[in-house]
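Notes from the 1:1 (GR / supervisor)

We went over the backlog. Supervisor wanted to see one worked example end to end before approving the batch request, so GR pasted a single chain during the call. The sequence is below; no edits were made to it. Supervisor asked that the structure be written out right there so they could see what the output format looks like.
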Amino acid sequence: MTTAFKDRNLLAVIGDEDTITGLLLAGIGHVERGKKNFLVVDSKTQVSAIEATFQEYTERKDIAILLINQHVAEKIRPTVDKYTQAFPALLEIPSKDHPYDPSKDSILKRVQKLFGD
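Structure output shown during the call:
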């Protein structure tokens, strides 16, 4: 394992309350010195707060995978589309009320372009 990636041992999540609750119950929660690895997004959450958290999580060196509900990613789609780093890996996931739509997934679009689909 490369030295640059050995400290990446956390999952981070940006999503709705049901998604975050389920993942916290599964044990992904981590709070250290006031820094959390999850953001609960509801109707009152400002887009600027979602973008700021996305930027923070993609710059942190302890996060290996960033999960984001696809309907939340849609709110910051230009920012998500610009993200091209390998780590943390970015995965768009469905939520209880919003099914996954492959046509909106920027990562899947990039993979399809690579394979000429």
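Supervisor's comment: The beta strands are 10-15, 31-32, 35-36, 38-40, 63-69, 89-93.
Batch request approved.
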